[in-house]
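Table S7 (text form). Paired inputs.
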Amino acid sequence: IAKLYARGIILKYASRYAREHKDISIDVIEHLGEELLFNFKLFMDEKEFEFTEEEFEKNKEEIKQRLQEEIANDIFGREGRYTIKLKYDLWIKEAVELMEKSSTIDDLFAHANKWKEKE
């Protein structure tokens, strides 16, 4: 991933995608998947960027996440970036799960203590 950022490949593709899809919603960006990745591979070829299929498959989910974040950032600014970023944040997911299980503050602390003991 670092070499994709170092050469600006992710940022350049995200900028292009954002220019071509100005009216896209954040919900659509959140669900961009295989088509986005396929077109990103074509972009890497166009830019003559060497990234093996093995490297791509190994980093596929992170590449998708970074592309979604950068596209959202280009179209919606920081708020868009963090909307996508929070979708993938494991700590946020755990916190939401604990809050959903809890009907009172005491329940929340009880669930949090059980969760902490599992760690």
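Next pair, protein 2 of 2.
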Amino acid sequence: DILSDEASMVTGSIGLLPSASIGDSAPGLYEPIHGSAPDIAGQDKANPTATICNSTVIMSNILRTIIKTLKQSLKVRFFLR
């Protein structure tokens, strides 16, 4: 997380890129790089680009999990025949 914050500062993209901290056993944490800027919430100053990008990352992870589960169930189904 620290490295992603530093890398975004170098490239000038703070608040524009999505970030995900995903573990093996717990749900992941998805947030814009460098937080969600609660100090400027409601002032029409924040750029929602990273938050919108995070939704695509979340959806791709959900779809990847669904596909993995379907593949496993199909293997079991055809193996039992």
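The radius of gyration is 18 Å.
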